[in-house]
Design a protein that fits this description.
single chain; 249 residues; alpha+beta; UDP-n-acetylglucosamine1-carboxyvinyl-transferase, Chain; four-stranded mixed sheet; three-stranded antiparallel sheet; 8 helices; elongated
C-alpha cells in the first residue's frame, strides 16, 4: 500500500490481509490525500497520486495489547475495566475468555472482565482476521496452562510459534507439541524460575506465567517484549502486579 501510493496508475493487491490495522492505514493515507479503497476486504486498489499532505491522525487502539492485558487479569483471578479500546476488534478473544468462564461485559469503547476462581480449558484454532488472532495464541496458551482440563490449540498461521513452550515447561507447565498442534494439560500451579523470551508474544506469555507462579520469576531478553508493549510494567503495576524492569536485562 505504501509503495503504491505514488505509483502511476492503479495497483491491485489481492489476497490482502483484512485486519483493522489495514483499514486504519487506508484511512490515514486517504486523509493525507491518497486514493485507496477496499481495505478490510481481500482486494485493495490503490490509484497513485502526486503528493500527500500533512495531517493529524489518531491511530486505533492496539487490540493485541488489550487482549494480552485481559488474559493477564483472567489468569490471576482478577477484575478489570479496560477502557479506550474497540471491543468488536476483540470479538474472538472475548468469546474464548467467556468460554474459559470469565464474566465479560461490553460497553462503549470498554470491556469489563471478572475472572472465575478457576479458568476452564478451551480449544482454539488461529485463523486470519476476523478469526482468533495468531498473536494471541502464546498468551492464551500460557493462561490455559493452569486452567482446569485439557486444551487443544492449533496454529494455522505461523510455523514454529511454540518455542516459548519449552520455557513454560521449566515452570511446570504440561505441553505436548505435535506440528502445529499444542495439547495443554492444566496444572494446579506454576513455579517461579529464570526464563528467556524467544519472541515478542512468547515473551508476554512468560510474563503472564510469572504473574501466576509462586515466587519470583526473572524473564530475560525483554527487548522482544518492550518492542511490542509500551510501558507494560507501569500498566501491570497499576493493576497490582509486582513487576520491575532492570536496565540491561
Amino acid at each position: 500500500m505504501l509503495a503504491a501510493v505514488f505509483a502511476e496508475g492503479d495497483t491491485i493487491i489481492t489476497n490482502a490481509a483484512m485486519e483493522p490495522e489495514i483499514v486504519d492505514l487506508q484511512n490515514f493515507l486517504n486523509k493525507m490525500g491518497a486514493n485507496i479503497r477496499g481495505a478490510g476486504t481481500s482486494e485493495i486498489i490503490i490509484t497513485g497520486v502526486k503528493k500527500l499532505k500533512n495531517v493529524s491522525y489518531t491511530i486505533i487502539p492496539d487490540r493485541i495489547e488489550a487482549g494480552t492485558i485481559l488474559c493477564f487479569v483472567a489468569a490471576t483471578g482478577g477484575e478489570v475495566i479496560l477502557k479506550k479500546i474497540i471491543p468488536e476488534h476483540l470479538s474472538p478473544v472475548l468469546d474464548k475468555l467467556r468460554e474459559c468462564g470469565c464474566e465479560i461485559q461490553i460497553g462503549k469503547n470498554q470491556v469489563y472482565l471478572k475472572a472465575p476462581k478457576k479458568l476452564k480449558a478451551v480449544n482454539i484454532k488461529t485463523m486470519p482476521y476476523p478469526g482468533f488472532p495468531t498473536d494471541m495464541q502464546s498468551v492464551f496458551c500460557s493462561m490455559l496452562s493452569t486452567a482446569k482440563g485439557t486444551s487443544v490449540v492449533i496454529e494455522n498461521i505461523f510455523e514454529s510459534r511454540y518455542k516459548y513452550s519449552n520455557e513454560l515447561k521449566k515452570m511446570g507447565a504440561k505441553f505436548v507439541i505435535e506440528g502445529r498442534t499444542a495439547v495443554i494439560k492444566g496444572v494446579r500451579k506454576l513455579n517461579a524460575t529464570n526464563v528467556k523470551a524467544t519472541d515478542l508474544r512468547g515473551g508476554a506469555a512468560l510474563v503472564l506465567a510469572g504473574l501466576v507462579a509462586k515466587g519470583t520469576t526473572k524473564v530475560e531478553h525483554i527487548e522482544y517484549i518492550l518492542r511490542g508493549y509500551s510501558k507494560l510494567e507501569q500498566k501491570l503495576s497499576s493493576l497490582g502486579a509486582n513487576i520491575i524492569i532492570k536496565e540491561g536485562e
